[in-house]
Design goal:
A hairpin with a 5-residue loop joins β9 and β10. The relative contact order is 0.14. With 261 residues, the chain is an alpha/beta fold. Helix content is 29%, strand content 25%. It catalyses: a ribonucleoside 5'-phosphate + H2O = a ribonucleoside + phosphate.
C-alpha cells in the first residue's frame, strides 16, 4: 500500500510523527509512506489553495517533502509532482493538535487536505486529537491517537463506505481528550455545532502603538447535541464522521423550489 500523509500543523509537528507511525503500520513492510506537508503551520486555512502565487517545495529526505503552501496545496504537489502520477492508495491528514469536531471542521486545514484528496478521487481520512484537562498532564498528548489510530483507520478501510461519487466520501476522525486506556471505543457521529461559543477576535496594541487583532476560538469543552462528534468525544469515544465537499442543502431543495416557483 502506498500512503500519502500531510497535515496543517507543519512538517515538524509532533502529530505528523504520529500519523507517520499509523501509516507505516497500515502500509506494512512492503508499502510506502510519502510525506508532503506544509513548511510552516497552516492551521485554519481550510481548503485554501495557493492559486495566485507559486510555492517552493523542498526534499528533506527519502519520501519526505515540505511545501510552502496549504495542506490542499501539499496534496496537489504530491499527486502531480512528487509522486509523478503514481497515485497513493490512501491519504491521511493529521494528526491535528486539537479537535476538528463541530464547526472547527469548517476552518480546518487538516480537513482541507483530506477534502482535496477526495476531490482528486482518492480515499482520504482526516485525524485530530482532542485536547483537554485529562491530556494536559500526559507525557504524550497524542496518546489516544497513537494507540488507537491504526485500528480505527484499518476498520474503516476494511468495512467503511467508499463510493465513487463526484463528491466522494471522506472521513473525519477525532480522538477523545483522554488517556489511551480511557478510550471507550468509537462511534459514527454527525458533525455537531457548539451553540454557546464561536470564533471571534481579540484586539491588542503593539509596542509601537499599532492595533492588531488576534483570531481566538471559543470554549472547546462545550458539548454539541447528544450523539454528535464533540459530544461523543467528550464522553470518551472516537468519533467517525463521513463527509462530502458538496455544500448543497439537499434537504431544502424541494421546499425552496416550491417557495419561489
Amino acid at each position: 500500500m502506498r500512503i500519502l500523509i500531510t497535515n496543517d500543523d507543519g512538517i515538524n509537528a509532533p502529530g505528523l510523527e504520529v500519523v507517520a507511525e499509523i501509516a507505516a503500520e497500515l502500509a506494512g513492510p512492503e508499502g510506502e509512506v510519502w510525506t508532503v506537508a506544509p513548511a510552516f503551520e497552516q492551521s485554519g486555512v481550510a481548503h485554501a489553495i495557493s492559486y495566485t502565487h507559486p510555492m517552493m517545495i523542498a526534499k528533506l529526505g527519502p519520501r519526505r517533502f515540505a511545501a510552502e503552501g496549504s495542506p490542499a496545496d501539499c496534496v496537489l504537489a504530491a499527486l502531480y509532482d512528487v509522486l509523478q502520477g503514481a497515485k497513493p492508495d490512501l491519504v491521511l491528514s493529521g494528526v491535528n493538535r486539537g479537535n476538528n469536531s463541530a464547526e472547527n471542521a469548517l476552518y480546518s486545514g487538516t480537513l482541507g487536505g483530506a477534502m482535496e484528496a477526495a476531490l482528486q478521487g482518492l480515499p482520504a481520512i482526516a485525524l485530530s486529537q482532542f485536547l483537554g484537562p485529562e491530556t494536559d498532564g500526559l507525557a504524550d498528548p497524542f496518546e489516544a491517537a497513537r494507540t488507537h489510530g491504526a485500528a480505527v483507520v484499518r476498520r474503516l478501510l476494511e468495512r467503511g463506505l467508499w463510493d465513487g461519487e463526484d463528491y466522494r466520501l471522506f472521513y473525519n476522525i477525532n480522538f477523545p481528550p483522554v488517556p489511551a486506556a480511557s478510550v471507550k471505543g468509537h462511534k459514527v457521529a454527525a458533525q455537531g455545532f457548539r451553540r454557546d461559543t464561536s470564533f471571534g477576535v481579540e484586539p491588542h496594541i503593539s509596542p509601537s502603538g499599532r492595533r492588531f487583532l488576534w483570531i481566538r476560538g471559543g470554549a472547546q469543552q462545550s458539548p454539541t447535541l447528544p450523539g454528535t462528534d464533540a459530544a461523543v468525544n467528550l464522553d470518551g469515544y472516537i468519533s467517525v464522521t463521513p463527509m462530502r465537499a458538496d455544500l448543497t442543502a439537499h434537504d431544502r431543495l424541494a421546499d425552496l423550489e416550491a417557495a419561489i416557483a
